[in-house]
């Protein structure tokens, strides 16, 4: 069995746009992803580690523990052996509390990749392959989170391109979620239920093409 860790934020946690509610596992994209791969005979187990508000390397001044680079090595150690880690982060790097660019955010993902590759796994256990997933571009933030993400669509412009560059530099897989889905019109940030279905199936197809190589 291949264990796959998904390290992400509220887009993957499955928050229902403009609410504080959560989609069920089989309706958010990690569950769709797992079911699609298992249905194709690939025999995988998905482990979710998704925290609302998680950044790549920055803290939230109002909530503890949102720096995604802190503790990730122990997460890898905890769940090893892992075949693959999927990183989908960056959206929260563009909250109004940060004046980041897409380039800076992508460097944060690069730092997480390096930490994963140095994780203190048990002797003889392999380090996992890594896939970087660029989140769909932020559109005009609306609803309850509008103030929190005011102007984020401008600060985050070009993130997919910068993450693809980081994936090349660090020799990881890359998938652009924006190539198959888009942010919800309800808040401009998160994914609607039907978009979770689309994304989960698309990433499953991308992983299925590579899983037999591990």
Automatic annotation (TrEMBL):
Claim: Hydrolase is one of the keywords in the record: yes
Taxonomy, superkingdom: Bacteria
Keyword annotations from UniProtKB, A to Z: Hydrolase
Pfam family, one: Lipase_GDSL_2
CDD domains referenced in this protein's UniProt entry, alphabetically: SGNH_arylesterase_like
Domain SGNH hydrolase-type esterase positions: 9-197
GO terms assigned for molecular function: hydrolase activity, acting on ester bonds
Name assigned to this protein: SGNH/GDSL hydrolase family protein
Organism in which the protein naturally occurs: Neptunomonas phycophila
């Amino acid at each position: 069995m291949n264990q796959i860790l998904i390290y992400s934020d509220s887009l993957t946690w499955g928050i229902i746009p403009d609410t504080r509610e959560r989609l069920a596992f089989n309706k958010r994209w990690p569950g769709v992803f797992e079911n699609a791969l298992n249905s194709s005979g690939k025999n995988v187990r998905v482990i979710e580690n998704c925290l609302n508000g998680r950044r790549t390397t920055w803290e939230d001044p109002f909530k503890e523990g949102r720096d995604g680079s802190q503790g990730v090595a122990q997460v890898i150690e905890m769940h090893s052996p892992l075949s693959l880690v999927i990183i989908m982060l960056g959206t929260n790097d563009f909250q109004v509390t940060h004046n980041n660019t897409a380039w800076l955010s992508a460097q944060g993902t690069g730092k997480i990749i390096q930490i994963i590759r140095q994780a203190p796994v048990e002797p003889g256990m392999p380090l996992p392959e890594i896939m970087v997933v660029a989140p769909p571009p932020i559109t005009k933030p609306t609803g309850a989170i509008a103030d929190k993400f005011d102007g984020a669509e401008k600060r985050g412009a070009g993130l997919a391109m910068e993450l693809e560059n980081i994936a090349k530099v660090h020799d990881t897989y890359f998938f652009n979620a924006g190539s198959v889905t888009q942010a919800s019109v309800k808040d401009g940030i998160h994914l609607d239920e039907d978009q979770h279905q689309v994304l989960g199936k698309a990433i499953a197809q991308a992983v299925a093409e590579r899983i037999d190589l591990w």
